[in-house]
Structures are given as structure tokens and as C-alpha cells.
């Protein structure tokens, strides 16, 4: 995975690049937007990490322009601007995610992983999280190579939770993803699917991974390193 | 210095003047009548002398002093009323001080410098506060990059110190975030807060979802429960979110591992957070909020500026931060959400005016109503003067046209009175006999006016036709009629210009319409002017022909009034565009699957509607009621809808 870090503070860019290298990303960095243009023109990046206040312009405007030119690589904004409303403006301008400085490398890496797992990106078809793996093409879930034997709904659920690993997926979005409008959804249908999936994970030694946040939704926590 | 009431001082002054002038008058009377002490000794003489004194001294003094004294009381109290009002306004603006200014225009000229100086002082204090906040925000903002560097550098170092340093850096980061948030909430104040209805349950779910991963990592259970289906509050989504987030973060910090933090939305417009900590008494909460508002010892308790920020956010929303120590709960209480009260249309004379050019000045509703009412009164006075003059001179100079024009102006006058009268009546609240309010009153009044004008127009047509059929009865008009017709023309044009200027100033489309109406009136004066001139030049029949034309104009005016009122009384529906807009508003509301049988009918200047909406079949009564309440609030907030009946169908 190759990333472009657009950040005017050279030391910060260097530290982020170093940290992300430990997570297996190769990073180039640009200190100005003009430099970033050159980079984007010459190399193919899987994702961009973008600061907003740059010496030769506003990162948001640059991003909107890049998006108009149909460069659809996912962009993560990493900025010191954290006021109410800034986040919305960033996402509106076409950013895929928004982080406020100072953010830890692990957080940045987790967000990048989630971005790259979104459908449509050039992510590999197999998502992994520790021993757990899911192949989006064959719709097979495995733990340490051993098949989980998932039903269609369980597979859909696992895929959704893995794509957003480490964050809570609200019940409403899960129901929308799992059931079409015509499916009669009884109030406890989702609970049943969740508990079957949880049991299958636990049978394979994955305890404490699928969490219930009562009244809100569910979360698959990241693998312990 | 002792403070003394102005009018008491004036009265004392008056009494002194009265006393002195009485003595002087007394002296004058004694000298004038050559009275001496001896004249007062005789019984008769004394009575006569007292009589003189009473008549020439006491009576004039009383006649002079008493009315002036009364006038002083009234004038002084009236003159000082704006100050009393201003004091009340200042008191009412408690907790919303930012952006508050006195309306200088309402002060008497003598007190104006004081009000101006006070506003100036307020502006300086605000500027100072804003500078301080901007400075704090700048500092916080600038600190973020070095902080980011320090945390990343730490990653490379191992050891025990790393954990402690990371913790320190984290609390520093938290403080910076909170400082920035506090500055921003304060800067926005309540005036600029976006006021959109917010579903508190949605906000609570977002916050819980965002904080749950951290809670799970710490082994604390974080859960949400919606107590009531409809917990709606008006405000700024992100600010409420930030406030609740702060409460939950505090709760997570004081709750030990294996404990539970619960977040509730409702009942009513409240959010509450219950934790496993020791609870917080009101005094403790007060001191936390206040101490941190001054940013002393902000980091010692670990709560940081959190509660001060929450308090600030709640104040900006007109709500409160409360503690329930017994239940170990902190509650965010919002003011109950209600649809904004609407007084629009002819009935309030502060018309909606979205289609007019935005001017530079921005008037509040009260000032608008005052200007609207003043220009209406000017038009009343000018029109009544004109019409009486025209009718009188028309009769004297034997010009039928001029009389007709006078009556035409008079019907204007009646229309203006209708506006003033109806504005008063149709605004009355619903009562037992009129349970839907009095908006229809407007229609009834219009219908009556239409019938009246129709009758007058017919009468004039009748008499003009009679004259034209018998040309020998047409008299030669006196020259003065021409002058009056010309004068009326000029007066009406000036009135039009004045009214249009006033209408543009307050951006009222009703007043613009009134102004143009005044100008179209001038057309009748023009016709009559030509008629009279023609009559004088030897074509006598032109005068009744002018009267005929004006008669048709009056008839047309009556027809228009009457026909429209009749339509509205017959439950005319809104135009297709508006119906489509209302349907769009309903259809795009979350949870609404379909809309049909949308029916609208006019009610005065407003609409009442009834509609069927499709909701998911297995919703509880409570949930579907909540959706209906939201839909109705939304429709009434966006359209000129007075009442709405919603029927729910399962989809």
C-alpha cells in the first residue's frame, strides 16, 4: 500500500511516515500542494493523508479540485482544525474521514485500514483481522484457516463489522444492509444472527471480539497485537 | 448624592412658583385696588377683599398650577417610560448578554447620549471578551502541532516513562480541545446558534457509538436507552453532541471497570447520563461549573473544562445542566420544543417578504409593525381629506366625475380601515364560538366590502348613464373642479412615493401592494381631470363619461374583493406549487414512507391541511405519534400552515 502524506511540518510528516511504515505502508510526503500535484501525477497512491493549512493554499480546495479531476483515491484529513462544523466541511469537500491532531499512529492506521476496506477501493478481496479472515468474493469466513461455515446473513454481518472494525455500527445500518425492504424483520431477528455469529467466533477461540452496545449497535473490536 | 424623583422635583418647583406668583399677585391686587390693612377690619370689607383675592389670585394660580402639575406627572412618566422598558429588556436578556444592545431610537432625545454610551460600553466589553477568547483559541490551536510531534516521538521510545508521559499528553490534548470548544460556543452565543429541531435520541446514539470503543477497552459498559419516542429540542446538532460527549467522558472516567454508564434520551427534551461514580451534589456541580468558568484548577479534578462547556452550551440553548445526586445522574434539560408561533399575512401587517430585495437595514417585527401602521395611517388621513374635498367641490362645481373620484378615494379609505380593523380582530385567539381562531374574519370582511363597493359602483353607473342619455341635464363644471382634480392627482402620486419608500424600508409586500394600489387610484383622478377639462372646453358629456369609467373601476374593485373572499370561504385550496412543496417536506421526513390524500384549504392568509402518511406497520403507537409530531412541526415551520391533521396508514 502506497500513501501520500501532504503536510507542511516536515518532522511531523517524517514521524507519521515512520509510524505507518511499521504498519506496512510505504509513504511519500509532500510539503506543498504544488509538490503534491507532481506526486499524484507521477505515481499511483492507494490513499492520501492531507493537512488543511498548507503554505500554498487550502487543502480542502485542493481536495475538491482533485476530486473533480476524478482522482478517487480515499483521503484522510489530519488537521489542527477541530472546531464544530470543520469536520462536516471536510467530509463535504470529499474527504473520506477526518482526524484532528494530535492523533496516534495506531488510530491513523486503523482509519486507513477502514478506508481501504471500503467497497470500490483496490483492497484485496480478503480482509484480515488477526486470525480472523473474510473473503469478500467467496463470502467465506475463516479463523486461522479453518472455515466458520457462515449463513448468508452471518457472512453479510461479518463483512459489515470487519469493514468498520473498531467502531460501533448502528443497529439501523446493520438492518438496512442485511435485510431488503421486502424482508419481514421481526424485532429479534438481528439478535439471533448476532448471537449465532458470536457463538461461531467463540467456538474458534475468538472471545470478547463481538461487542453489543445496548440501545445503539454492535462492534467488532480489533485484534489484540 | 440623594436620588430624587424627577417629577417630584418638578412639582416642588411648580409649588414654589405658584406660591411666589400668588404672593406677587396678592401684592399687585392690594396695590391695584388700593387696599390697606384697614380695609380688612370691617366685616363687609374683609369679605369683599377675600372675594377679590380669591378671584384674582387664588383662582388664576390654581387654574395655572393644577393642570400644569397634572401634565408634569403624565409627561414625565411617559418620557421616562422608555428607560423603564429598557431596564426590563436588560433584565430579560440575562444569560444572553452577547450581542445585546438597547434600541437607541426609542429613547427620548435627552436620554439618548446615555443609551448610546451604554451600547458603546457593551460593545467594548464584548470586543474585549472576544479578543480574550480568540487568543485562547489561537494558543490552543497552535499547541496542537507540537503536541502531535511529542506524541509521535514518544511512540519511538519505550519504557515505563512512556505510559506516564502519554497520559500527561492526553490530558493536555483534552484541555486544548475543550478550550477551543468553549471559545467557539461562547463566540457563537445564542444569537447565532442554528435553531433546527434535533432528535436527541439520534444525537445520543451517535455519542454512545463514538465513545463505546474506548469504554469497551476500559471494561466499562456504555449503553443507551430512549425513554420517550419524541425527545426533540431546538438547537445546534454538533454543539449538543459536544456537550453530551463531555458528560459521557466524565462519566466514563469516574466509573470503575465492570461498571455501567447509561445514557437516556427523554422523557421530554432531556438527555441524561447515569454513571457508577459517587454522584454530584448541586453545590458541587455549581462550584465545578463556576470554578472552571474562570479556568482555575482546571485540570486538578480531571473533569477539565468539561462541565463549564456543557453549562455554556446549555445556556446558549436556553436550557440547564442539572444534577440528580440520588440517581447519580447529570441531566441536560432543553426548553420544550414548540412550533414557532406565526403571525403573518394581512392580519399582522408584517408580511413575509422573501421575494423583496433585501435592504441593508434589518427591522425587528415591532419596528416593522410601527412603520407599517404609520404609513397606513398617513394614507388614511390623505385619502379622507382628498375624498371629502373632492365630493364637496364636486357637488358645488356640479362635476359628477369629481364626486365619483371622491367616492373612489373613499372606498380606498374603507379598504384601509378594513386592514387596520381586521388586523386587530383576526389575530384574536380561538374562543368557544370560534374554535379555529378568527382568521376567517378577514374573508368575511372582504366579502362585505366587495358587496358594498359593488352597490356604490352600480349606483354611479346608473346615474352617469342617465346623464348621458339626457345630455341637456349636464351642467357646465366650475373651473375650481379642475384645480381640485389636479391637486388630487399630485397628492396621490406623492402618497404613492412615500408609501413605496416605507414598504421597501421594512420589506413588506403587503405595503408594496398598498402603495401600487394608491398609484392605480391616481389613474381615476387622471380620467376625471380629462373629463372636467373636456367639459370646460365645450364637450360637457365628457364629465359623466369620466364618472362612468370611475364607476366601472369601483365595480371592478368590489368584484375582486368579493370574488376572492368568496373563493376562500368556499375552502379554496392552495396553488399546485405550494401543495407540491408541502408534500415534498412531508415525504422527505425520516420514517415517512409515503404521502397521499394531501388536502389544503385557505384560512384567511394561512392554510389548514389534512394528509395521510404511510409508516412502517409494526411501529408502536408511541413511535408513530413521535414521527407525526415531528412531521407536523416541520411542515408548520416551513410553510404558512396553521393547522394540520395527520392520518397514519401502515405501509
For the biggest sheet of chain A, the summary is: 5 strands, parallel
Tell me, rounded to a whole number, the average pLDDT of chain B. Answer: 78
Measured as a percent range, the helix fraction of chain B is 55-70%
Q: Tally the beta strands of chain B.
A: 10
| Helix amount of chain A | 25-40%
Helical segment count of chain B: 16
How much strand of chain A? 15-25%
Uncertain regions spanning at least 5 consecutive residues of chain A: none
Instruction: Note the gap between the termini of chain B.
Output: 77 Å
Q: Could you say which structural class the secondary elements and strand pairing of chain B correspond to?
A: alpha+beta
In angstroms, what is the radius of gyration of chain A?
A: 19 Å
Oligomer: heterodimer
What letter string, H or E per element, gives the SSE order of chain A? EHEHEEEHEHEHEEEEHEHHEE
What does the model show?
The complex is a heterodimer of chains A (225) and B (651). Chain A has eight helices and 14 strands. Chain A has 225 residues and is an alpha/beta fold. In chain A, strands 2-1-3-6-7 form a five-stranded parallel beta sheet, with helices on both faces. Chain A starts with a strand and ends in a 5-residue tail after the last strand. Chain B is 63% helix and 10% strand. Chain B has 16 helices and ten strands. In chain B, helix 4 packs parallel to helix 8 and helix 9 runs antiparallel to helix 12 (480-506). The radius of gyration of chain B is 37 Å and the shape is flat. Residues 293-301 and 340-362 of chain B have low confidence and may be disordered. Classes of the chains: A alpha/beta (225), B alpha+beta (651). Chains A and B meet through helix 1 of A and helix 3, helix 4, helix 5, strand 2 and helix 6 of B.
Amino acid at each position: 500500500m502506497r500513501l501520500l502524506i501532504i503536510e507542511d511540518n516536515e518532522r511531523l510528516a517524517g514521524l507519521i511516515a515512520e509510524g505507518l511504515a511499521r504498519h506496512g505502508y510505504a509513504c511519500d510526503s509532500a510539503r506543498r500542494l504544488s509538490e503534491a500535484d507532481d506526486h499524484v501525477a507521477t505515481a499511483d497512491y492507494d490513499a492520501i493523508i492531507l493537512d488543511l493549512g498548507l503554505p500554498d493554499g487550502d487543502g480542502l480546495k485542493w481536495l475538491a479540485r482533485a476530486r473533480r479531476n476524478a482522482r478517487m483515491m480515499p483521503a484522510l484529513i489530519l488537521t489542527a482544525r477541530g472546531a464544530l462544523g470543520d469536520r462536516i466541511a471536510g467530509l463535504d469537500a470529499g474527504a473520506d474521514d477526518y482526524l484532528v491532531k494530535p492523533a496516534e499512529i495506531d488510530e491513523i492506521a486503523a482509519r486507513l485500514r477502514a478506508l481501504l476496506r471500503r467497497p470500490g477501493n483496490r483492497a484485496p478481496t480478503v480482509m484480515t483481522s488477526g486470525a480472523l479472515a473474510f473473503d469478500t468474493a467467496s463470502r467465506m469466513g475463516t479463523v486461522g484457516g479453518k472455515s466458520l461455515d457462515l449463513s448468508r446473513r452471518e457472512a453479510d454481518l461479518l463483512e459489515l463489522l470487519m469493514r468498520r472494525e473498531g467502531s460501533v455500527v448502528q443497529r439501523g445500518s446493520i438492518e438496512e444492509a442485511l435485510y431488503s425492504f421486502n424482508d419481514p424483520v421481526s424485532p429479534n431477528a438481528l439478535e439471533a444472527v448476532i448471537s449465532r455469529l458470536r457463538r461461531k467466533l467463540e467456538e474458534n477461540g475468538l472471545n470478547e471480539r463481538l461487542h453489543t452496545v445496548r440501545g445503539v449497535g454492535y462492534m467488532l473490536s480489533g485484534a489484540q497485537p | 448624592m440623594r436620588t430624587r424623583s424627577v417629577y417630584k422635583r418638578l412639582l416642588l418647583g411648580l409649588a414654589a412658583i405658584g406660591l411666589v406668583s400668588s404672593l406677587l399677585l396678592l401684592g399687585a391686587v392690594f396695590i391695584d385696588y388700593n387696599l390697606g390693612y384697614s380695609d380688612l377690619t370691617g366685616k363687609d370689607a374683609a369679605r369683599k377683599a377675600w372675594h377679590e383675592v380669591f378671584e384674582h389670585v387664588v383662582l388664576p394660580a390654581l387654574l395655572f398650577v393644577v393642570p400644569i402639575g397634572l401634565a408634569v406627572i403624565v409627561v414625565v412618566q411617559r418620557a421616562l417610560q422608555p428607560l423603564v422598558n429598557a431596564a426590563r429588556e436588560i433584565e430579560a436578556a440575562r444569560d444572553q448578554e452577547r450581542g445585546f444592545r438597547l434600541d437607541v431610537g426609542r429613547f427620548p432625545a435627552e436620554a439618548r447620549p446615555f443609551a448610546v454610551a451604554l451600547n458603546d460600553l457593551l460593545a467594548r466589553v464584548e470586543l474585549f471578551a472576544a479578543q480574550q477568547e480568540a487568543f485562547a483559541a489561537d494558543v490552543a490551536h497552535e499547541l496542537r502541532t507540537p503536541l502531535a510531534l511529542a506524541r509521535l516521538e514518544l511512540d519511538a521510545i519505550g519504557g515505563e516513562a512512556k505510559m506516564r508521559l502519554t497520559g500527561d499528553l492526553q490530558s493536555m490534548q483534552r484541555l486544548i480541545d475543550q478550550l477551543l470548544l468553549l471559545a467557539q460556543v461562547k463566540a457563537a452565543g445564542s444569537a447565532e446558534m442554528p435553531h433546527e429541531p434535533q432528535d436527541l435520541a439520534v444525537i445520543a446514539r451517535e455519542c454512545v457509538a463514538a465513545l463505546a470503543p474506548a469504554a469497551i477497552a476500559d471494561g466499562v459498559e456504555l449503553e443507551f436507552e430512549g425513554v420517550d419516542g419524541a425527545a426533540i429540542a431546538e438547537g445546534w446538532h454538533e454543539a449538543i453532541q459536544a456537550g453530551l460527549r463531555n458528560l459521557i467522558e466524565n462519566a466514563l472516567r469516574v466509573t470503575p471497570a465492570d461498571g455501567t454508564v447509561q445514557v437516556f434520551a427523554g422523557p421530554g427534551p432531556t438527555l441524561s447520563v447515569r454513571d457508577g461514580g459517587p454522584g454530584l451534589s448541586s453545590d458541587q456541580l455549581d462550584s465545578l461549573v463556576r470554578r472552571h468558568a474562570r479556568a482555575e484548577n482546571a485540570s486538578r479534578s480531571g473533569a477539565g473544562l468539561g462541565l463549564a462547556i456543557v453549562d455554556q452550551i446549555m445556556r446558549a440553548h436556553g436550557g440547564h445542566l442539572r444534577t440528580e445526586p440520588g440517581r447519580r445522574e447529570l441531566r441536560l434539560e432543553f426548553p420544550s420544543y414548540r412550533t414557532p408561533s406565526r403571525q403573518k399575512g394581512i392580519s399582522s401587517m408584517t408580511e413575509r417578504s422573501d421575494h423583496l430585495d433585501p435592504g441593508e437595514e434589518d427591522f425587528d417585527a415591532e419596528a416593522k409593525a410601527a412603520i407599517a401602521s404609520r404609513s397606513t395611517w398617513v394614507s388614511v388621513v390623505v385619502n379622507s381629506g382628498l375624498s371629502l374635498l373632492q365630493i364637496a367641490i364636486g357637488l358645488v362645481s356640479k362635476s359628477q366625475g369629481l364626486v365619483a373620484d371622491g367616492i373612489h378615494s373613499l372606498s380606498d379609505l374603507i379598504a384601509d380601515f378594513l386592514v387596520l380593523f381586521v388586523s386587530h380582530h383576526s389575530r384574536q385567539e380561538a374562543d368557544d364560538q370560534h374554535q379555529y381562531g378568527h382568521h376567517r374574519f378577514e374573508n368575511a370582511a372582504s366579502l362585505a366590502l366587495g358587496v358594498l363597493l359593488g352597490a356604490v359602483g352600480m349606483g354611479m353607473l346608473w346615474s352617469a348613464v342617465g346623464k348621458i342619455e339626457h345630455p341637456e341635464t349636464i351642467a357646465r363644471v366650475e373651473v375650481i373642479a379642475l384645480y381640485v382634480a389636479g391637486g388630487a392627482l399630485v397628492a396621490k402620486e406623492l402618497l404613492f412615493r412615500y408609501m413605496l419608500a416605507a414598504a421597501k424600508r421594512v420589506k413588506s409586500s403587503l405595503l408594496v401592494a398598498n402603495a401600487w394600489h394608491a398609484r392605480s387610484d391616481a389613474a381615476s383622478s387622471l380620467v376625471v381631470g380629462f373629463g372636467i377639462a373636456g367639459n370646460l372646453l365645450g364637450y360637457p358629456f365628457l364629465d359623466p363619461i369620466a364618472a362612468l369609467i370611475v364607476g366601472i373601476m369601483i365595480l371592478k374593485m368590489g368584484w375582486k374583493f368579493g370574488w376572492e373572499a368568496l373563493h376562500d370561504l368556499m375552502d379554496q385550496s392552495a396553488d399546485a406549487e405550494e401543495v407540491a412543496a408541502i408534500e415534498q417536506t412531508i415525504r422527505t421526513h425520516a420514517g415517512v414512507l409515503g404521502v397521499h390524500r394531501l388536502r389544503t384549504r385557505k384560512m384567511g392568509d394561512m392554510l389548514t391541511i389534512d394528509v395521510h402518511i404511510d409508516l412502517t406497520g409494526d411501529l408502536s403507537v408511541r413511535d408513530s405519534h413521535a414521527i407525526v409530531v415531528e412531521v407536523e412541526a416541520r411542515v408548520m415551520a416551513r410553510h404558512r400552515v396553521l393547522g394540520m391533521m395527520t392520518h397514519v396508514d401502515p405501509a
